[in-house]
Amino acid sequence: MPFSNPAGDGPARVVLEQVDDTQFRVLVPFKYIDAAGKEYDVPASDPNDPNDVTDLASVPWILRWLVASYGQHTTAALLHDRLVRPGMTLPERVEADTVFFRAVEESGNNWMRHRLMWAAVAVGGTMWSHKKKLCLLFFAHLVAFWAAVLWATGLLPWLSPLWAGIAAIVLFLLGFAWRLAPTADPSLSWWMWVAAAVGVGLIVPPCALIAASVRVVQLIDHIVAAVKGAGPQAYEQPSPLKPSDLAKAEARKASAMWTAEPPAG
Predict the structure, then answer these.
(1) Which of 141, 205, 207, 257 is deepest in the core (most CB within 10 A)?
(2) What was the pLDDT predicted at 226?
(3) What whole-number distance in Å separates Cα of residue 255 and Cα of residue 25?
(4) Helix, strand, or coil here: 72?
(5) pLDDT, tens digit, for every residue of 99-127?
């Protein structure tokens, strides 16, 4: 029972209050106990702090077909949210990512998705925050590798696929040097390049299709809204795919006021 109640004598209960379209407040604390017996507390949100909220697993909308923002990994995501805080040192952030990986591994049998989730926080979170130039080099390496792969398939017929294939193999093998990056625990760093390189190939094609489909749906919504606005109904702007930061801040503030002083009746 890696996730338990604060007393450690029962399973964890995840009780949340939704404060806007994507943010939640943790109402009941719990804790995580790793294999070595070390405890990590996940406290309840401070009702007096409107910014003490979580978006559960921070998954971009375009990737939620692969990894949902909630599910078996919710407790691990909430734990990582609590472990990651402003002003952390690089070793502290690496430890938080490692605890997240161990916790999410215990949440279910999703071997590849767990490594993709860990690589996302290790590269897109820790490396980007602490070693931005190194992160840009990592992304450039990924782009170069997949460009060589596409070249080798013959999609660019005016170039020799043989040399492209050799380049792709060399770039992939060079990728294992990323296990020396200081932004990942040595016991896990081997997976950073592999998960990212394989993940790009698996994820980019369906994401491109999803992005195009979503834009078509949005276009239809705008057309229908315009038709309604031309008639007896007032024009109503379709909801944006992503709420603005101002709208989210206002929703958090309203939720905090409600919690502190609920209206009568």
Answers:
(1) 141
(2) 85
(3) 9
(4) coil
(5) 999 999 998 878 999 999 999 999 999 99
